């Protein structure tokens, strides 16, 4: 290749990447809001319970309202984006984020608080299905991998920001500020989406070829984008043959569907969000006396989550998905087991609180290098192109639905079975998820999406692909 060509090519990458960085930044705000609005409740709950005098069941509903909304948002999200466009749906998502945050901050009664949290949740569900789709459709192929993981990173950062906000307002019991401040990133997210273009893929699908051409020239910063337009058209022609609900159950697709739905459920029934949403309560149960101390320890848990997610991002393409998944879930089994057993012993010296903190950190760290990022990554890469959006949406719906069930039952389980048996139950679920990952999840590292698609067709043994 001539020197001039090489210079021209690297210039193209840089210019193309510039747009991707901006798009990723704004779209990541959707992930940040996902993390913030789900995580903020952990610190706010103590004060909400106090102000409204909530029963345990009512507390669970306040936490889970968001998840019910998210499940609904994920169900309609994929279809709405196909019909109205990704950008328009994300603009509406930003507006719902803002309205939901304000409404929950000023809620005069538990009923209005719960209703506002359901509305807010629908925005989270919409964001979780549409932000990754938007990003993957505007990203140049070579950047798609890190962009997908960036979404999970934004979720974990959102959780830490929520914990810090909780900590800042804990002294004055300011739960309304904790919930209301999410309006700021929602505004920035909305403004960003206003200026970002619709994806070329959706425009071409809708027959808006000229606009799609203009958008591609703008985001790739290239005068000639015909090759990419032809590729999009070719893949759409392939998709036109199918892409319906019934296709999800076709024999060739079924194994991938089982992997996606299985991971969606296991990501949640191994208990991650009992820690993310209820950490201060768990810590108080383990002996932390002040609300602020428990919330501060929770910030530590959130920071570990971010740090280990960054580590996972740097390892996932080198070590592969399966080793991270299996090692991480093994860590979850051990830490949950120790946490469960530690609640069995009496605690005259107050050391239990520290064992609990260490176990919670170890558990979150293990999740963050395994089921956390790898679930969202795999559901973006294991499905055939024809049904990718639909199948991803279905996996996201199962994920939110399972999250809802776990969060709705956690406090009741603790009350009826005790903290020890409850965490041991999640340890058993983790053993099942390790076995599931070992026997069913394929290694996808270093393979093109087409090779993965071909793998499902020929269906060699799953572990064979790990080698
Ligand atoms: C999960 C969320 C969880 C978060 C914690 C995500 O992958 O889907 O339910 O709260 O990780 O970091």
Task: Sum this structure up briefly.
The longest helix is centred in the N-terminal third of the chain and has 37 residues.
- Distance, first to last CA: 34 Å
Q: Summarize the helix and strand pattern as letters.
A: HHHHHHHHHHHHHHHHHHHH
CATH class: Mainly Alpha
CATH architectural name: Up-down Bundle
Gyration radius over CA:
22 Å
Bound molecules: beta-D-glucopyranose
Which parts are unreliable, with pLDDT below 50 for 5 consecutive residues or more? 1-14, 460-467
Portion of residues within helices: over 70%
Q: What is the typical, i.e. mean, pLDDT?
A: 85
Category by helix and strand content? mainly alpha
For the biggest sheet, the summary is:
none
Number of helices: 20
Query: In what range is the share of β-strand residues?
Result: under 5%
The CATH topology name reads: Growth Hormone, Chain: A
The rough form would be described as: globular
Structure description:
The protein has helices spanning 3-39, 41-52, 56-84, 86-106, 110-138, 144-170, 175-180, 183-195, 200-205, 209-220, 226-240, 254-269, 272-285, 291-315, 321-342, 351-368, 371-381, 388-417, 419-440, 449-458. The chain has 467 residues and is mainly alpha-helical. It has a single domain, classed as MFS general substrate transporter like domains (Growth Hormone, Chain: A, Up-down Bundle), CATH 1.20.1250.20. α2 crosses α13, α4 (86-106) packs antiparallel against α5 and α15 (321-342) runs antiparallel to α19 (419-440). It starts with a helix and ends in a 9-residue tail after the last helix. The structure holds beta-D-glucopyranose. Beta-D-glucopyranose (BGC) is lined by residues 38, 152, 155-156, 159, 267, 272-273, 276, 305, 372, 376, 399, 403.
């Amino acid at each position: 290749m001539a020197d001039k060509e090489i210079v021209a090519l690297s210039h193209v990458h840089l210019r193309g990447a510039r747009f991707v960085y901006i798009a990723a930044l704004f779209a990541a705000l959707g992930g940040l809001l996902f993390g913030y609005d789900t995580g903020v409740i952990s610190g706010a709950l103590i004060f909400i319970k106090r102000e409204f005098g909530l029963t345990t069941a009512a507390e669970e509903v306040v936490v889970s309202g968001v998840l019910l909304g998210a499940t609904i948002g994920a169900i309609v999200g994929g279809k709405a984006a196909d019909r109205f466009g990704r950008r328009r749906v994300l603009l509406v998502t930003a507006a719902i984020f803002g309205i939901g945050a304000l409404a929950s901050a000023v809620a005069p009664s538990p009923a209005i608080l719960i209703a506002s949290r359901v509305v807010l949740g629908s925005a989270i569900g919409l964001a979780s299905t549409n932000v990754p789709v938007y990003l993957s459709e505007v990203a140049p192929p070579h950047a798609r991998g890190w962009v997908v993981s960036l979404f999970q990173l934004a979720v974990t950062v959102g959780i830490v920001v929520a914990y810090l906000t909780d900590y800042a307002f804990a002294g004055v019991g300011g739960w309304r500020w904790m919930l209301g401040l999410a309006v700021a990133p929602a505004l920035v997210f909305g403004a960003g989406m206003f200026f970002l273009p619709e994806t070329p893929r959706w425009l071409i699908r809708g027959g808006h070829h000229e606009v799609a051409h203009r958008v591609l020239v703008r985001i790739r910063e290239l005068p000639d984008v015909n090759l990419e337009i032809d590729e999009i058209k070719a893949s759409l022609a392939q998709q036109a043959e199918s892409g319906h609900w019934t296709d999800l159950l076709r024999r060739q697709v079924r194994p991938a569907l089982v992997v996606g739905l299985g991971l969606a459920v296991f990501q949640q029934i191994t208990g991650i969000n009992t820690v993310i949403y209820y950490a201060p309560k768990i810590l108080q149960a383990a002996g932390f006396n002040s609300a602020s101390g428990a919330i501060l320890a929770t910030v530590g848990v959130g920071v570990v989550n971010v740090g280990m997610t960054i580590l996972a991002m740097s390892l996932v393409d080198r070590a592969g998905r399966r080793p991270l998944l299996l090692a991480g879930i093994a860590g979850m089994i051990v830490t949950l087991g120790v946490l469960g057993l530690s609640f069995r012993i009496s605690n005259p010296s107050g050391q239990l609180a520290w064992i609990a903190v260490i176990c919670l950190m170890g558990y979150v760290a293990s999740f963050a290098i395994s089921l956390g990022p790898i679930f969202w990554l795999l559901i973006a890469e294991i499905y055939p192109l024809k049904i990718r959006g639909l199948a991803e949406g279905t996996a996201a719906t199962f994920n939110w639905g399972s999250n809802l069930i776990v969060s709705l039952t956690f406090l009741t389980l603790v009350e009826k079975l005790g903290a020890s048996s409850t965490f041991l139950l999640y340890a058993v679920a983790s053993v099942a998820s390790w076995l599931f990952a070992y026997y069913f999840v394929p290694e996808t590292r270093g393979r093109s999406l087409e090779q993965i698609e071909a793998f499902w067709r020929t269906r060699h043994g799953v572990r064979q692909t790990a080698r």
